[in-house]
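Deliverable D4.2, example record:
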Amino acid sequence: MLVGHSPLRWTDKCFKPREGESASVSMKAVMKTSPKPGIEVVDVPYPELRPGWVILKIRAVGICGSDIHTYHSTWKPFTDDWARGGFRKHILGHEFSGEVAEVGEGVEDFVKGDRVVATTMINCGQCEYCKQGIPWCINRERTDGAMAEYLAMPAKSLFRIPDWVSYEAAVLCEPLTVALYAVLDISSLAPGQFTTVLGPGPIGLATVIAAKLLTPRTIVATGTGVDVSPRLETARKVGADVVVNVDEEDPVKKVLDLTGGIGADVVYEAAGVPLLRQGLAMLRYGGEYVAIGHPGSLRPEPIAFDSGDYYRFQSRRQKILAVYIEEARNWKTVMDLLWAKKIDLQPLVSHVLPLTDAVRGFEIAASRKSLKVVLVP
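Output generated by the structure prediction step:
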């Protein structure tokens, strides 16, 4: 899910050299500097410490599918805005973990050295959306991205992580919050039911983990031949009962065969491509298609969905549900699960590279021959 693009105010006056560090006022960061494809590793000023905020030393930051869309300049909501002159340089990254390096005035719940993750959804709590519990605050405050050496964050957005969870694995907390929101809040998946996850990327794998918590009868994960290793293999390790290579086997037929022709109770689309026709075809009467993935294309092709498909969708009373970002309670659930040692996110980390090698990291992530690619400042 995406971090906002408006930069924080930066000032050289806020820099306080730490023991063993040089008195430089700059730091490395991965920045989108042009509407054209690509990113750059650049020097930017150290962030400002504000009352109620902390400065985090970023220990690890994950490359999200949305970051890849930004890297390739292929996500239409962004590129449309950029074409209208809305582009501004910004630091990428919203899946991260870090260590509290400085504590601002008024912060009492965190101290220097605390190991944390944070949500970038900084809501006002006062607008109509916030009052209704809808995670789309119209006054949401924005931070810079986390693909940098340091990041300023409000203390209210932080969550402590256990010592036994590596910084690299902790970057998966944010994807898991999105998956939990899809499974627990948006869908009505129940114990003993049959579910399918389309797409075995990091979000799809997190969705398998989230779904497994509800003890469904069967979880099917699908992917292409490119996804077989390591993605489909990992899907089975983290909870999928059946994996399907769609290049070799019809996923709709497989699901219908496994359910005696009835179909899945819930289908989660995490492939990043619109699979509406396929997903609805494998759903039971009254089933739910939950759209999680973000398709990325400058010139999106129409979804293959004709009047016959529409009638079948209506006559079977199926539901199409949308997922975007997550809610604060999902973060609390993830933290509770980690502290109770009920989940393990380490298997989802496949590559760890230096922040300065970000371009190679993005290419690895885009190849789909990886799970979560993590950059370390």
